[in-house]
Amino acid sequence: MVKDLNEIKKRVCEANKTLPSHGLVKFTWGNVSEVCYELGCIVIKPSGVDYDKLRPEDMVVTDLDGNIIEGDLNPSSDLPTHVALYKAWPEIGGIVHTHSTEAVGWAQAGRDIPIYGTTHADCFFGPIPCARSLTEEEVNTAYEKETGTVILEEFTNRKLDPLAVPGIVVRNHGPFTWGKTPEQAVYNSAVLEEVAKMSRLTEQINPRVQPVPKHVMDKHYYRKHGANAYYGQKS
Amino acid sequence: MVKDLNEIKKRVCEANKTLPSHGLVKFTWGNVSEVCYELGCIVIKPSGVDYDKLRPEDMVVTDLDGNIIEGDLNPSSDLPTHVALYKAWPEIGGIVHTHSTEAVGWAQAGRDIPIYGTTHADCFFGPIPCARSLTEEEVNTAYEKETGTVILEEFTNRKLDPLAVPGIVVRNHGPFTWGKTPEQAVYNSAVLEEVAKMSRLTEQINPRVQPVPKHVMDKHYYRKHGANAYYGQKS
Amino acid sequence: MVKDLNEIKKRVCEANKTLPSHGLVKFTWGNVSEVCYELGCIVIKPSGVDYDKLRPEDMVVTDLDGNIIEGDLNPSSDLPTHVALYKAWPEIGGIVHTHSTEAVGWAQAGRDIPIYGTTHADCFFGPIPCARSLTEEEVNTAYEKETGTVILEEFTNRKLDPLAVPGIVVRNHGPFTWGKTPEQAVYNSAVLEEVAKMSRLTEQINPRVQPVPKHVMDKHYYRKHGANAYYGQKS
Amino acid sequence: MVKDLNEIKKRVCEANKTLPSHGLVKFTWGNVSEVCYELGCIVIKPSGVDYDKLRPEDMVVTDLDGNIIEGDLNPSSDLPTHVALYKAWPEIGGIVHTHSTEAVGWAQAGRDIPIYGTTHADCFFGPIPCARSLTEEEVNTAYEKETGTVILEEFTNRKLDPLAVPGIVVRNHGPFTWGKTPEQAVYNSAVLEEVAKMSRLTEQINPRVQPVPKHVMDKHYYRKHGANAYYGQKS
Fold it and tell me: Is D197 on the interface with A (CB under 8 A)?
């Protein structure tokens, strides 16, 4: 089945519009993209356009290197970060970046989001990593591309699977999430924001709290993921 | 009067739909059930279905052991926890499980929610207990059933009456509440979430705060419950 | 001009309905009353009735001692507190009681709400006092009436003017506010809740913060109150 | 092109109405103005009028010294602060004052809002200053005018450019922001409120956090401002 570019544009447009309804963005502070290997393209939100004015035909289409193929508007300035992640991780199909409040709290604090319970384990198999801040050289050469490099470096160093830990917070900046589809990437953004808040409250209530036991984390993650998952309905 | 199964399905469906309107759930993260001893059944939400798409005919009907009698969809994966509580406590008629944010904060922190005032005492006669986390063996044999066992163990050890303290938080997981009806169980979930927040704020404002005096707790609880209650209207 | 009882019922009903829209109550956790000396009556919300079902004809009318004159429903269980305050303070015309979250935080913490800025000073001329918890004897004899006595004791001991400091939090319980009219009493409840939150955030950001200088407090209070007020429009 | 006074009134009215929709004000606690040098006037919200009742014809028009030219209503009591800022900074075209909760938290705490990340740097080139509280003499002579003087003193002492740092919090009081237009001033108020919250959460999560590195701050600010900006669409 050949993929339909108009369907992708429609889907990316819709996924972008869900960001404000999930409370993840103010103004134009977030973007969603989808990659399609059959068509050899990435479809992404135009930069600085309000979500409620966004139409499918406003989406910007680029090749897999981020060169614009179609669209009159500038793509999101974060496009090079999306390109870097898609190139490294062919298993993912959608990426989301936001400045959601609680996630930014951890990004600015420069800390991994600890895994304290099952809400977190249902979606992220372990702590949500905090990537280091970019160096002056990285910022001044290709800032948005290097943001992608820093994320990939963190996953390589920690030997993490991007589908098992589908998100990160970049120090001094904010969260990036991904998934097999743009819809899953948005879902993961919403979960990241919620568990970021839960972890903050948890430490406030008990400053000496320890992470969730590994067997509980394993159980909850595999209840929802993999061959033996039994949550939800068979699709 | 013979109970009408369709009425129960309708009531359970409606009770599930109130979870997002009370701000207690995101996505599909919560479930409500009702037990009926006359008909010998439990009616519960199907697993992973959105609240706004839920129809009475989607509810799953099981016998009192949790074996499916009616319904094409999988029941909530937490069904065995509901079954365990109904078996132990014939006085309750409805159960609710959510991942509401403030309650999860206490669950993850591994602390009982202290009773600091009358809002709490109006509904819960004492601190809201935090049950221990499950052992590796419990998790790996029958996780959801053992979650029920751990809750019952906590109530037995502390000699608590489930109608006087109609809820608990399970360590590293989240809140479970119950009541004579599903509506009461939902009400108790909403109160638990609110007093979880109030207790957190109270400790932030005064880290050395002490629990409410027993005579105030008694007064407020019995103003609303039991033979001498005088709050509200005679029904 | 003779006061019209139906107008008062309508006003009290409307004032009660604004409590949830200001975010001050959940379920039925709050009540508003008005006193009328010409008609010799108090009009108050019935106990335990939902705000969205409240109609003017549901309001309960009592004499100035709280004896029911008119109405088929039970009055708010807090009626004796309202009666006690009206008897002591003929200058007030309306009273509000809620369990609003941030105010309850201070009540449960057992602390006065400090005055840290102009938002507070625009409405409350000084800290918002926290009244002591009731003794066992007070609770067991006439709980709701004694709640009023404890509030009055606090104002007498501190030599406070109830129109200059139109509210209090009662320890382990929650806020009471009042004003010349029910509308003003509701406004004061909303301001109390907001400054309760602001004071909490202020102490979180700077644990060694000092109260607002007296000359700033005086200026802001008298900008809005008294003969030389110049905020707003001439009515 | 001669400016149209009716257009300005309409714009100022609309900008005022966006304050509650951005969650920046309760009741009547905020005001927006615009200055026009061609027409030699300032257009500002009337004092104490509800936002939902505000009509363009209700706006108050003054000369550049704040003397009323047109309008039956009293102008916002903060008018003299607006006048002082417009006189000192001809590069700004609109001013906003609110009592937004998180910003007031920092104002009351008497602290600059530290710059911990890119959300802040996208809009404010450095920490958001906290101006000192007014002296007793300043309060008693010309309070609102002196509030402007204190803001200007802070910017002069710190050698700050009002378009690079388009806002401040005044100690014990609250935030003032500005911009080339009223719309930009409102946007800056919303960003100030959001970064005030983010900075509070950041310090809660990591009490020893350090400010964002200067090269990241520079990058984000200049991505959106100045000749080399590349965020958004070419207008």
Answer: yes
Q: Which of D122, D97, D95 is nearest to D180 (CA)?
A: D95
Pinpoint the alpha helices (H) of C110-213. Answer: 118-121, 136-157, 182-205
Q: What share of chain C is helix, strand, coil (3-state, %, to 5)?
A: 45, 15, 40
Helix (H, G, I), strand (E, B) or coil at B168: strand
Contacts of C47 in chain B (CB under 8 A): 231-233
> What does the alpha-carbon distance between residue C93 and residue A215 come to, in Å, rounded to a whole number?
61
CA B124 to CA B162: how far, in whole Å? 10
Nearest CA in chain B to C202: B205
Give the side-chain half-sphere CA count within 13 A for A183.
5
The closest of D49, D213, D29, D12 to D121, measured between CA atoms, is D213
Of D28, D111, D136, the CB nearest to C206: D111
A50 catalytic, yes or no?
Answer: no
Which of A49, A172, A200 lies nearest to residue D205, judging by beta carbons?
A200
* Cβ partners under 8 Å of residue D137, min gap 6: none
Chain B residues near residue A203 by CB distance under 8 angstroms? 109
Tokens 């139409």 belong to A55
Question: Chain C partners of D54 at a C-beta cutoff of 8 Å?
Answer: none
| Residue C57, SS3 per DSSP | helix
- Token pair listed for C131: 């009244």
Pick the residue from chain C with its C-alpha nearest to D207. Answer: C205
- Please give the structure tokens belonging to residue D37: 């040098």
What is the spatial distance between Cα C37 and Cα C160, in angstroms, rounded to a whole number?
Answer: 23
pLDDT by 10s per residue, chain C, length 235 = 457 999 999 999 999 999 999 999 999 999 999 999 999 999 999 999 999 999 999 999 999 999 999 989 999 999 999 999 999 999 999 999 999 999 999 999 999 999 999 999 999 999 999 999 999 999 999 999 999 999 999 999 999 999 999 999 999 999 999 999 999 999 999 999 999 999 999 999 999 999 999 999 999 899 889 888 888 887 6
- On chain D, the residues whose CB falls within 8 A of the CB of C203 are 109
| B29, A119 Cβ separation under 8 angstroms | yes
Residues 60-79 of D with CB under 8 A from C: 73-74, 77
Inter-CA distances, C225 with B6, C87, C188, D125, Å: 61, 24, 14, 40
CA distance B105 to B125: 21
A230 touching B, CB under 8 A? yes
Model pTM above 0.95 = yes
Cα B201-B202-B208 angle, rounded to 5 deg: 130
